[in-house]
Every structure is written in C-alpha cells, then in structure tokens.
Amino acid sequence: MSAPQKKWLRLPRGRWGPPATRFLIMLLACASLAHEARGKATTSAANRDNVGPEEPADATHITERLPEIRQILGEEATYEGILYIAGVPLKVGTATFRVTESQEGDRPIILSVDARGGALGYSVKAKATSTLDPVTCLPRQFFTMREGSENKAKRLDFTTDRILYVKKKHCRDPACTNPAHMVQPKMPLGILPRPGPPTHCTGCDDPRHAVWTLRYTHEVQTAFLDVLSALFAARAGDFTVGQSFIVPVVEDRDRWHVTVTSLADETVTVKAGSFDCVKVRLLPKNTGEPKRRDKFSALFGIKGNLRLWVDRETHVPVRIAGVLPFAFLELDCEVKLVSRRSPNSGGRKCHSAHRTDTTTRETEKPAPPNKPGQQTRQQP
C-alpha cells in the first residue's frame, strides 16, 4: 500500500477523520476560495472546466476593494451539507456565515462561521472568525477551532510585513511549572498512580495541556487574506463569463494566488429558491517560499476538486459540489444555500429578487375573516 493511501486509514484520530468530519470541514469552507490544485488533464468534463484564460497578473485589485464588505454588515447565510453514500443522500450538518461589527475598541468587522453536526458516530462543532480592520478591512487575526470527537485550534496573526501561524499544541516546555500541566505518574501498567510528586505531562489529548505555539512566520510585502475573508472579498470581483481575477490567500504555512474564473451562466435551485448563477472555477497557485504543497487546503484542511455556483446578483455562494476521498472510496458531497438574511431585509430572510421568499410569504399572510357576529378589531 502506498503512503498516500495509508494516511486515510488513521481513523478517527487521523489527520482528516471519517467522511462526515471532512464534509463538515468542507461545509465551513463552502464558498472559500480554495480547492485542490489542478491535477493531470483528463477527458472528464470536470477537467475540461479547467481550460480557460491565463492567470491574471494583478492580485491587488480585490484587496483594494475590501472596504466594500461594510456594505453587507448584518448579512447572515445558512447552508446545509449533504454526503452521498452509494447514491443515498445523508445530511451531516449546517453552517451559518455572519458579518457583524464589534462594539469593542475601534469597532472592527467580524466575519464568522459556525458549523455543527455529525454522522456515522462522529460529531463536530466548529467555528472560524476573521477580525478585520474597520477602515481597510484587511484581516488582523484569523481564528479557527473544532470541538467534539476532535479538538483543534489555530490562528493567523497579521501585521504589516509578517503573518504568524500559531497553533495549539501540547506543551513541551521542560521549564514549564503550570500546575494544570502536571499529572500524577502511574505504575508501569498505567492503572494505579505511582507514589511521588506530579510531573509534567509528556503527551495527551487534554485541551488544558495545550498552549499556543508559533509554527511559521510569513515574510510578506503585499497583503494576503485568510480563507474566510477571501470568501467575502471575492464577491467584489468581476464575474462576467470568461473573466478572471486573483485572490491572495494565506493558509497555515503556505501562501497562494487563487485565480477565480467565471465559466458559464446556469440556473441553480436549492431550498433558498432558484437563482441565476455563474459557475466558477478556482485555480490555486502556491507562491510561498519555499513551496511546501501542490494542493490547496481550505478551512480546517479541506481538499478536493470543487465546483462553485454564485448568485449573479449578490455574488453569494449558492451551491458547492465536490468529491471527498475516504479510504479507497470517493464520496460525492454538496453544500447548498438554505436561507440568507440581507442587510436591508429588516431581519427577514430573503433571496434573489426573481423569486418569492417563502419565509416572508408565511409571515405576511392576510388575517382570517371574522366569524359571524364578531366585530372587527380597530387598529390603534
């Protein structure tokens, strides 16, 4: 068995976990500008979609338009994730994206996504937030965590010329005196405690023993975005069919230029309604030094060939379709828009202008007629 095949067998505490977990990871990244780097050309339709114009040269256009994010303050969008096993759909969770303004300090903008769910005996609760400068809307910090069957946390700290990748790891400091990191040593069989003073834990899954550890420092001369802020920044791009633009993304130890190319106009129907969409191709290119990977990894490590459809009017992601590898299988999966509350909807769920919102229709039903002999109630 080859090495790439072996890594998928480490369950459930392997790098990726079972398929439900990997799909929930995809759910969090449903519209993020990330997917598996283009593989070798084949005659399949998916690979034919990768044939398009050359990569644009300018990656600063999108970062200059970041302040437009302020126009969608108050937006909320909810998605559902579906995993297909032998053609049978299995709903595995939901994720909600929000754009808010913090009431603390200089009132930075907060982009957040919360996902929860589970399947096949595996549960997960995940969250990611991106804190943006209130003026430039460039990211200040990106934080992501998972709880449930697995517990992980990491962040990116942005400065003018550096991006620090920090991850929660088990404390290995030999000089550590934190009482929370001390454990009572045990006898050789590991059942009974051994007499003596507590010693520093050498390795376990207890989150109390984890500390923030610097893993990598990016030296940068131009602005980069985390995968969550890149999702919202891309909505300012030109989605005219045949046009392309670049989104600069930093992910863990790697930096990427993701070329976003609009391929075709299509109509997509989901629970939120029917939308006039643009089918989009995402083509990442590793620009980090040194280059570590030839495959892009989105929020929480999702990989795969993704097909993305965005609403032509709002540029909100409507549908994501992809394939997730599991052991020797490839499982189809989808992420679909369930509802969206726009900043100007007054708290109501709303969708594209060309459809009737079922939520609004329910709340605006006319009052039932009065019963015989019942007086009409006067409005104040």
Tally of DSSP β-strands: 16
Strand content: 35-45%
Number of helices: 6
Helix content: under 10%
The overall pLDDT, averaged over residues, is: 74
Which class of secondary structure composition applies to the elements? mainly beta
Low-confidence stretches: 1-17, 23-57, 350-367, 371-380
Bulk shape: globular
What is the structure about, briefly put?
This protein is mainly beta and 380 residues long.
Report on this structure:
It is a single chain. This protein has 380 residues and is mainly beta. The chain has 2 domains: 19-40 and 49-161 and 220-352; 162-219, no CATH class. The chain has 6 helices and 16 strands. The model is unreliable at 1-17, 23-57, 350-367 and 371-380 (pLDDT under 50).
Write out key terms for the chains shown.
mainly beta, 380 residues, disordered C terminus, disordered N terminus
Ordered list of secondary-structure elements with their pairings:
Elements: H1 3-6, H2 19-28, H3 45-48, H4 61-64, E1 76-85, E2 88-101, E3 109-119, E4 122-132, E5 139-148, E6 152-158, E7 162-170, E8 182-183, E9 199-200, E10 210-219, H5 227-233, E11 244-251, E12 254-270, E13 273-286, E14 307-311, E15 317-326, E16 329-341, H6 358-363
Antiparallel strand pairs: 1-2, 1-16, 2-3, 3-4, 4-5, 5-6, 6-7, 7-10, 8-9, 11-12, 12-13, 13-14, 14-15, 15-16
